[in-house]
Amino acid sequence: MKAIRVSAYGGPSVLKLEEVPAPQPGATQVLVRNHAVGVNPVDTYLRSNTDNRGPKLPYTPGSDSAGVVEAVGDSVTRVKKGDRVYVGGSLSGAYAEMTLCEQTQVHELPGSVSYAQGAAINVPYATAFHALFHRAHGEAGESVLVHGASGGVGIAAVQLARARGLTVIGTAGTEKGRRMVAERGAHHVLDHNAPGYLDEVVKLTGGQGVDVILEMLANVNLQNDFGALAMRGRIAVIGNRGSVEFNARLAMNKNAAILGVALFHATPVQLAGIHAALVEGLRNGTLRPVVQQEIPLAQAPRSHEVVMENGHFGKIVLVP
Ligand code: NAP
Fold first, then answer.
1. Domain with CATH 3.90.180.10 in the chain
2. I need a labelling partner for 51 at 20 to 30 A (CA). Which of 140, 150, 166, 182 fits?
3. What is the pLDDT of residues 125-178, one digit of tens each?
4. pTM score above 0.70
């Protein structure tokens, strides 16, 4: 089968399409034939070995895909050959024609959800759920600022928060992005490049500020976020691309909490709960992933350039 392999850390050009043997499932494992593969910003950090987090070389990148079960091990009961599934993590990497998973890593893909949308579920939706509900404990009746709502995680957060009964304010950097954020359920949409937009957040909450901020770019926004936060508010840091200096008194003055979020640290029990909620949300139509662009698997280097550009209105997906 064809797979993208990385044999040396570096820029997008280290992603090479190669012929590799198809994996065979062990007793508890599932082999999935991928119809679409999700590209996440973390795939670029691992490829370039940012913070020495790169996987052992050589490797096939990616954790997210959607497709059809090709084969299952003897003791697999969750799925059978031919089932439509999305993949949340894998043993062999997702940027490939087929992906080997533990059975706990595959989840039902309802018939109303396309394979491209299926590839947009795992990291974005699971992270948004973990941040919003497990870390920030967002409750119905509260308000949330999704700071960067046009990307994969942001769109997921808007839909999950809206379905749970929070008032949702989303931001995006382009007109197209803002339109999509509104269409996906945000009550209010702001431009994170416009001067004074955080003052609007305070006005929209009747002067109180928001209860929760989901932050996609903490190194740029953290200091200013406190001005838009309610008393006893929580800031969940999901994305950060550099260092930030801020006055800790801002947190003291509001009894505020700054919460780190890493999906990687969600427990197996939390992950099982997250995917149960996501499958149901996909079935009942409250969760509708947005695909910005589909790119052939062989052009994986281009997908890594596109995913790091500004001006999002959805998810970048590779097609094997
Ligand atoms: P993405 O699809 O590339 O989207 C990036 C988002 O950031 C877009 O909505 C973009 O908006 C927004 N943005 C750009 N400038 C901003 C600003 N000044 N203030 C607020 N938002 C701004 O990425 P993603 O998959 O949604 O992930 C978002 C971030 O979370 C990335 O840094 C990613 O690495 C991180 N992440 C972390 C975890 C975790 O476990 N902690 C998991 C998944 C992702 P415009 O393009 O409209 O300007």
1. 2-121+289-319
2. 150
3. 999 999 999 999 999 999 999 999 999 999 999 999 999 999 999 999 999 999
4. yes
